[in-house]
């Protein structure tokens, strides 16, 4: 290994992006690399070259560099399928890791499996590693881990295990509707009206079916009452997140919630949860992912040593 | 007027398409013309040339050919704005018709206004003419006219007036989600599983928040249980239509419903309404539109004669 080079590499290989962290032997981050080579842009034989290109300068002259990878690289359409582990089971993701065959002997890659739930059918890939990261700091946590994002996950965590979970397409709807639906005329852009967000959350929490009944109203408010794009956009977000909270209340009601997601989005969920009578703590998403990958690396090294 | 030429032209100028019907003096259809020149593809000065190109062969040597037009041609972004009439008001759409200035003296165009509702904010353009068409055959109808489509409208009709209405984006969601969301991997194509549709309608009618909670499950069912594209697609439709019916129950519960829409879609709504304990009659959409335009033509001719 080059002096000062990484001891191992933590990797989060998502649908659209790959994030790498070069780690030293003590678990500190030497460097972070972001690349737009997610699963959706790669063929199966494109993963190893993509990784080699990004790590070329830090590959060891002798031996190999371990890469611990969570996310979509383990999907059936990814690099090497890591079959889902079925809940209830520990979040810790080293068990069931798969190792793709590589051309280059200077790399050794392990891909962590996701979780599945048979009924109601649900799947996750990557978030299980974040949940393991949460539990690294709070091994006795009994509550809910909510991971807001394109597909927001709510995981019921008890006895050190993931007992069950539920996915909502809220983030994807918030991305799609202002781009592809009639709301593109009323809710595009990046403006934001915080009061409109809070009102819409309250409406979604108190009125059943507020989302279905309210979507076209966003457009009509813009036509008839000149509601601004920022107001429409914040109302749409509030209707979506409020409806998600109403639908997920059986999971989080009366329990502590730990939120792990991009900062602004997690703050919206936290605010809405408080409006709904819940309580949530925000955790840093990157630290949590890294903690989960650190735990997996440690467990895999113990297996092989 | 050329011998055997039309006495007037009925026009439905929508967002994506223009439909014209050449009418004889007795109100019979001589010919139907479909053209892909909807509002979304035209600048303001493109409407007259588009119409002239389609009607060139039937324009009169002397006098003018009346064109009665409903739909998006009257929108603020359309040809000539026909300001919304506010409910409660009669559906009959001749009142408030606007006349764009034309270059060619052989045409005389009247554009019928849509309806608006101030609170909750809602708008329609074109459907008011179909409602007027329904009332032409049933002037004393007291009930609900449901117009399924991209933006499904539910109109509360009583005392010969539209008392109020509500729009749902159900059709647009059903179009968007299998094309642009993660469901494109599971619900694309045209296959259909009728039993899955019925189950999903039942679920949406009985479980609050079934839509929000169920969307990602369609994808997970495909991954874990190899649910077919036809099953996912029919479930998505059932979740959407069932959720719409649940959200609109205050409108249609205990009242007769007349459905006006594309045949297959109207049949799905009818089936779902029966499942939900309602009763609906299906009316032919084209006949209904034409009846509304006939009524408007008659009223406008009386005004000008």
UniProtKB/TrEMBL annotation, chains A, B:
A Gene Ontology molecular function term of the record: 2-dehydro-3-deoxygalactonokinase activity
GO BP term, example: D-galactonate catabolic process
The keyword tRNA processing is annotated on this UniProt entry: no
Pfam family membership, one: DGOK
InterPro entries: ATPase_NBD, DGOK, DGOK_C, DGOK_N
Key words of the record: Kinase, Transferase
Protein name per the record: 2-dehydro-3-deoxygalactonokinase
